[in-house]
Amino acid sequence: MNALSKPGSKADRDALRQDMAAAGFSIADIAIEIRIRFRMRPREAWRHAHGWTLQEAADRITQASTTGPGESVAADASLVGKWEKWPGPSSRRPSIAVLFAMANGLSCRVQDLLDLEDRRALPEADLHLLIQHQSAVETPTPPTTPAFMAAPTAPTGADLVRLAADESATWAQWVEASNVGDIALEQLLAETRTLASDYLTSDPVALFVRTKALRDRVFALLEGHQYPRQSVDLYVAAGYLCGLLAWMSSDLGQLHDADTQGRTAWLCAELAGHNDLRAWVLSTRSKVAFWDGRLREAINFARHGASYHATGTVMVLLACQEADAWSELGAQEEALAALARAEEARAAMTGGDEVGGIFACQPARQENYAAAVQLRIGRPSHALQSADNALTLLRVQPVRAYGTEAQIHISQASAHLATGEADGALEALAPVLALPPDHRLAPVTRRLGELCSGIGRPRASGTAAVGLRQAIEEFCLDSAPRHVALSPGQGSA
After folding, report:
1. In this structure, is residue 385 part of a structural domain?
2. Cα torsion at 374, 379, 385, 386 (round to 10°)?
3. Which domain holds residue 356?
4. Domain count, the chain
């Protein structure tokens, strides 16, 4: 059975247009019926009355503006869509020249393209010109013949001076207007903080959807008009949200998409001129590069981020990330020096984190990095001490991040395996193996894979080690990154 089409779908519009045309109704009648039935703006209704796509309408509008009197217009599908939606969100107000060209192209009068809401939103100068010339417009010819409207004659003398003043007043009204208020900006940042905090404890896929929706709202606002200082605040919000999407994409195993989000976040940080955001974006990009095996790039991102001397805990995290990459390269001296810089950054820290949540480096998170670094450079006893410290610190935090806690337990288990204590490793991993599949993120499965590769070593052999390997393999087969990789694509974010 065929699925029922939604009201207002192309099939519905085509059927209505064909039925009305067959019954002898005019294009104007069809436009009115489409507008009422499907609740469309008048300009969109007239286009659908002709059965044209946005591009087809754009071509006719451009052609009509070059063959008729008045200023020429270069239209494209995107512009026509924005003209149709005006004065709604993400729209663009059509100028007088555009309205004349649209009327010519759509074979109607300018007044047919404007309803009461449009007239109220028109600048006073434009409305005055329309009223002034409306009486001079001839009655439209039949729908098969374009109805050219007389273009306004150039004003002179006092009219010219008055029109110039009206135009300046209209421009001043536009500059003074804003599509976002200070309270709304404050709410956007509050919602961003909530998402960054919720990510530590919530289902990552569901939170990804919420974050994308908020990012889309911010992008839509940036397409509108606001004061420069408000644009800066919107770019900051967009930067943090794209950074959060980059972090989530990486945790879900989608490193290429994470890189794309990171580049967009960096653009937002640059447009905002916001050093704290720059540092957090570079921290995120360092994280993505690390898990993608681009270790030198991860180090460069971390060092670049540190050059901004940001407030809050990002300087601590950047030093930890640099140590992480150095340890993966086997550079013990550089890794330990970076860990020392993390301690120094903690002691010299000024101010708090603007967003928090995943964009914060609590002491437990710092110790987690230290444990992983100590393991890679062959110091299992130091790693075990750092892991124990991390768990102690985590218990007193108001929010316990399950991803960080899992990695701490993995460091514990790895340290036990390095000293031949397979039973201790299995006990340390029990909370990790109990994680629900939605919380089994890529860093956790990757760390478990590293641990698993060490189980075959002589000091980590035995029945317990074999059981541990089997449990890890089963765990990784049912993980969030695997589910995302195997799911059908839903389009990019």
Report:
1. yes
2. 0
3. 180-361
4. 3
